[in-house]
Amino acid sequence: MNKIEIEIDGKKVEAEKGATILATALTAGIYIPNLCAMEEMGFIPAACRLCVVEVEGLPAPVTSCTTRVQPGMVVRTRSEKVDRLVKTGFELIMSVHRLECKDCPAHKNCELQRIARERKLALKPKSFPKIEPDFPIDDSRFDFGLNPNRCVLCGKCVHVCNEVTGCRILDFTQRGMETAVSTFDGRPLSEQNCDACLKCVEVCPVGALYLIKKKT
């Protein structure tokens, strides 16, 4: 048998052997905040640290994207400790995120907005000083652009561009607070040998990579 049963938030859930708690919960319609995991593509960086849950018998919360299900496992997606960790992680991300929702192509389809809505968190937290990123926007192509000021450094686009499509155009540049997603060699997107598959745009959770509307 490839199926096992676990419990999430008091609900009995059928899970695939070897699957992560995150994938199992999402399949069962139980939401856990997440920005970076793509288990189906073999990408689980645990970078956002928002998918933490409590597992009965473990001494501390764990990232659900890296924790595999076990028969009889009991999981809680909400608790005082979990909620505090998620809130802190979310506020840290938002403290360096340029908030321009109305002008963002991901408006109303943004994972940050969903997390804020599901967990009743403020998009403009006051716990940390706001640092407005000011990276150059690359809108040199006719079909899609890159605005690093919206980026949450989840790494999805870099993984897809390098490991899935093999185009090897996007990468992380700089370090520390200057870390951003850009082209591997620094040249504009329009000068890259891009096959316009748009998979990087598809996986971006926040509109940092976006389709450019055709002028009429």
Q: Which structural class best describes the helix and strand composition?
A: alpha+beta
Q: How far from one another are the termini? A: 56 Å
What coarse outline follows from CA principal-axis ratios? globular
Parts with pLDDT < 50 across at least 5 consecutive residues: none
- Number of distinct helices: 5
Count of strand segments: 9
Taken in chain order, the helices and strands follow as EEHEEEHHEHEEHE
* Global Rg: 18 Å
Overall pLDDT confidence = 95
Strand content: 15-25%
Q: Largest sheet at a glance?
A: 5 strands, mixed
Q: Strands across the major sheet, in which order?
A: 2-1-5-3-4
- What is the helical fraction, as a range of percent? 10-25%
Short description:
This protein has 216 residues and is α+β, with helices and mostly antiparallel strands. 21% of the residues lie in helices and 16% in strands. It is built from 5 helices and 9 strands; from the N terminus they run ββαβββααβαββαβ.
Describe it.
By secondary structure, the chain is of the alpha+beta class. It has helices at residues 21-27, 80-94, 111-119, 156-164, 199-203; strands at 3-8, 11-16, 52-55, 62-63, 74-76, 144-146, 170-173, 180-183, 209-211. The strands form three sheets. Strands 2-1-5-3-4 form a five-stranded mixed sheet, with helices on both faces. Strands 6-9 form a two-stranded antiparallel ribbon. Strands 7-8 form a two-stranded antiparallel sheet. The longest helix has 15 residues, at 80-94.
